[in-house]
Design brief:
Keywords: Cell inner membrane, Cell membrane, Membrane, Transmembrane, Transmembrane helix. Belongs to the drug/metabolite transporter (DMT) superfamily. Small multidrug resistance (SMR) (TC 2.A.7.1) family. The chain contains six helices and no strands. It is mainly α and 122 residues long. Helix 2 runs antiparallel to helix 3, helix 2 runs parallel beside helix 4 and helix 4 packs antiparallel against helix 5. The model has no long low-confidence stretch (mean pLDDT 88).
Amino acid sequence: MYRKLCSPLLLAWALLFAAIVCEIIGTSFMAIAARNGGYLGYIWMAGALALSYYLLSLALRGISVGVAYAVWEGLGLIGLTIVSVWLFGEKLVPQELIGLALALLGLTCVTLGEPHDEEATA
């Protein structure tokens, strides 16, 4: 059971989701720094985005590059949109909501095409 919980594929997806969180944090700091000035926000942005790319590269050991990048960018876009509405008070118009829904649908299709068994990633 322990071996199943710590599978390379599960670890790769965990690293990918950590990379997505870092991307959202880094890009949020970029927006904060651009709006408020000061260099501290840019330093946090650079660190978070560098960590995001590093974690993405580790995730590529178990997930194909096309799927990993699509999920990283797509969920990053959706997450950042949620943060921008919540943190910055930005409004979404119906076309944006439709676009986000289509992006999520596309990510689902791309991810379902990825082999999910251990033999495919070995």
